[in-house]
Design goal:
This protein has 339 residues and is mainly α. The chain has helices spanning 2-11, 15-27, 30-33, 38-92, 97-102, 115-123, 128-138, 145-155, 157-170, 180-196, 212-215, 223-237, 260-263, 266-273, 276-279, 282-306; strands at residues 174-175, 216-217, 220-221, 242-243, 313-317, 320-324. Among the domains are: 2-57, no CATH class; 156-257, no CATH class; 272-316, no CATH class. The protein is built from 16 helices and 6 strands. The longest helix has 55 residues, at 38-92.
């Protein structure tokens, strides 16, 4: 695809010209296309391929953003429900703590037996996970919403690997001044996933302090969770901080502008454009636009006054002229042609 882009760039076709030539591939049948000379056919097909490639890229990015947003929304909804259920269940498990407390005063227990034996007995009253929740409840503490959010992400790891990762690997990213570290991590992760099928390195600069408790385990990064963090971070940065080449919606603004080298000959470029408004002095252009706007306003007003504009109804009552849009009453819902 790079060769096609380089060739079309060398031809210096405008984007509208490229779209027009590409549309001719759909307009003409295969038989009619063969009637054109080889060079013309090649031009049409190259423009068509570039346009199709650009559209496919945009669909991939749109799909990636959509799935990331849905994943984030589902995680938040799940976290709220899980937090409520856990707190509610903990209040119901208070009575089960009685059995655990009685183990401390049970004289029938051998004092020399290992503590693991006591833990096994305690687990018959309540599961270890519920014990932690019960302790938080008794101390009037609540887990953060992020805890439940990342638990949900853990449950979706297979879906993320099968859905988001292929989209991630299919895209090419470009950085802005604020996203150099992010793009560097993206490139390393894409290479690692292509070679070994998993993430191997994580740039800790991308992990905000508020997320460290969820992603760091004994000073090491949970790479499965870091993969999810990277995808969600990409989705939030595709707002003008991160770019996708070979697209219209997600490419750099500078891609639509004349480069600095060519802009040094701006006088020559403006003259070659053959656009009258670009050649006019600014004051003359503003005066021309003002006169054009005034003429249009007068023309619209005169058509309304004369009644030629049927979409506006003029009324004059008590010397005050007012206008309104025509009102179409609701027709009868009965259809009785016999009557």
């Amino acid at each position: 695809m790079d060769n096609i882009n380089a060739l079309l760039e060398e031809l210096k076709l405008s984007s509208k010209n490229t779209e027009h030539y590409a549309s001719l591939v759909d307009y003409y049948t295969v038989t009619k296309l063969h009637r054109f000379d080889l060079t013309t056919r090649q031009l049409y097909l190259l423009c068509y391929l570039q346009l199709r490639y650009r559209n496919i890229n945009e669909h991939l990015v749109d799909s990636f953003i959509y799935h990331c947003r849905k994943l984030r929304e589902k995680a938040k909804d799940h976290a709220k429900e899980a937090a409520f259920n856990e707190w509610n269940n903990s209040s119901e498990n208070v009575s089960k703590a009685v059995g655990i407390l009685r183990l401390f005063i049970d004289d029938s227990l051998d004092q020399k037996q290992p503590f693991s034996h006591i833990k096994n007995k305690a687990s018959k009253f309540i599961s270890p996970d519920d014990v932690e929740s019960l302790c938080l409840y008794l101390s009037d503490e609540k887990r953060s919403i992020d805890y439940y959010v990342w638990k949900f992400y853990d449950q979706q790891s297979e879906w993320i690997t099968e859905t988001l990762r292929p989209l991630f690997l299919a895209l090419e990213f470009q950085s802005s001044e604020t996203t150099h570290a992010l793009v560097s991590q993206i490139e390393n992760s894409q290479q690692d996933c292509s070679e070994s099928g998993q993430f191997k390195k994580a740039d800790r600069r991308l992990i905000k302090p508020g997320k460290q408790s969820c992603l760091l385990q004994e000073d090491s990064v949970n790479l499965n969770r870091f993969e999810i963090l990277l995808y969600l971070l990409i989705q939030t940065k595709l707002n003008g901080q991160l770019f996708i080449p070979n697209t219209l919606k997600y490419r750099r603004l500078s891609d639509d502008l004349v480069n600095d080298k060519d802009w040094k000959q701006k006088s020559k470029l403006i003259k070659s454009s053959q656009l009258k408004r670009l050649l006019m002095p600014p004051k003359q252009l503003m005066t021309s636009l003002e006169n054009e706007l005034t003429d249009k306003i007068d023309h619209v007003g005169s058509r309304i006054q004369s009644g030629d504009n049927k979409t506006v109804i003029m009324r004059s009552r008590s010397g005050n002229t007012k206008w309104r849009l025509p009102y179409k009453g609701v027709g009868s819902i009965l259809n009785i042609p016999i009557l």
